[in-house]
Amino acid sequence: MHVFFVIDAGKYEWQSVLLTASLRQFASGVEHVTAFVPQRRVSVISPKVLAFQERMGVAIDTLQDNDAFFASRYDHGNKVLAAQAMSGRGDALFLDTDTVFCRETDVSVALGEAFLAGVSTKGQLWATRKTAKWAELLNAAGYPPSDGEALEQTLPHLNGGVIFFRDQRVFGPTGDQTLGEAWLDMASRIDRLEFQDRRPWVDQLSLCIVARMLPPESVRTLDDSWNHSLVNDLEPLRSMPKILHYHGGNRTHKLRRNLGMGIVNMLLRDDEDFGDINDLVALSMETQARHIQFKEEAGIDVGANARRHKRWNKG
Question: Which helix (H) or strand (E) holds 243?
Fold first, then answer.
């Protein structure tokens, strides 16, 4: 299994350190690991982060600017470009950067006989429930627009944060596209429809539509332990999942409360740059200014929460 993820500048830098440390500690069945870095960010990402990834045997690859594929720059689109870049590299596992392995996990067994596997989305798939918009969206995807909402109910709602897929060409009119290629094609088409409320869900919507192109038996729904989401669950973990999706932003306090400092410190022990959670917090503080700057440059409101980062990390 070839594991890959994206390291953008800002919060994704410290998250990538923890992800890779946990991957090396707990994940088996992994043949290669690749971190994709947007070309425009390579020069601003902490050299310590890139050096850490290389020490851990992670290959660093670059992604071209995604605004060539979308209506405008779309950071979530980097994962889709990375999936497309994986074509020809073997069966793969994509991980959002804010995920962490928590216990021994053989990633090679997740797909079974399926082509695509993931955990069902627990939250809202899209901001709108308007039938007309679903009809328009699915029509753009090549489906008859007769009843978009009813068709939406048949879509496999896989969370795009942890996705397993085979490196086979089964999509497209002549079956000449891999999942990554089909995903990028569909995401580009959806984004260029320019629905006012299409973002940030374009990657999720397009993945669901591409998944529906497969026979139902080719899509495997995994249990929640493969992608345990902490979006709404703020209580301490009762049992350790295989993969924790902590949606942490720069809030390292969330890891302290739900995962525990002991596990984080164990994962980072003895590293020359990141020996424990305090080093991780220091990195998150260092990268926070960049994160806010890049969001503001893109016209994204980072809100008061991001600016309270320093207080949060002291809590």
Answer: strand 243-245
Q: Is 28 helix (H, G, I), strand (E, B) or coil?
A: strand
d(CA 163, CA 178): 14
**What digits encode the pLDDT tens for the residues 218-266?**
999 999 999 998 875 556 677 899 999 988 665 566 777 777 788 889 9
pLDDT in tens, 173-193: 888 999 999 999 999 998 988
Q: How many CA atoms does the CB half-sphere of 74 hold within 13 Å? A: 26
Q: In a 3-state reduction of DSSP, which class is residue 213? A: coil
In terms of C-beta distances under 8 Å and separation of at least 24 residues, what long-range contacts does 233-242 make, across chains too? Answer: 234/258, 240/102, 240/103, 241/102, 241/103, 242/101, 242/102, 242/103, 242/105
Rounded Cα gap, residues 196 and 101, in angstroms: 36
Tell me the residue type at 315. G
Question: What distance in Å separates the CA atoms of residue 83 and residue 163, rounded to the nearest whole number?
Answer: 10
Check pLDDT > 70 for residue 96.
Answer: yes
H or E stretch including 91?
none
> Which residues 6+ apart lie within 8 Å of 308 measured at CB?
none
Count of CB atoms situated within 10 Å of the CB of 282? 13
CB 9 within 8 A of CB 287: yes
